[in-house]
Amino acid sequence: MALAEERETVIRSDDECKTWTVYTMQQTIITKLRKAGVEPYKVDPAGAHYYKDLKFNQVSFRSGKERVMTEEQRQKLSERAKKNLRRKM
To answer: What is the CA radius of gyration of the chain?
Structure first.
């Protein structure tokens, strides 16, 4: 297993085909891709995972900004979530 500073993820996009190619040795990324239903086409003995022809919608990037809410906003969201949960039951 590679040292933490040696583990990396490389993502290449192909605008013409609207696909991604991904190489990663980071377990977090491997897990996220597996949960998205993506399987590597190759795993080398060192643990590197290779993915190709991933559709653009299978990979997304989100801002790491935390949502800052007032106590009143939290309460409203909590009430809405409880209401939705009861409706599903």
So the answer is: 19
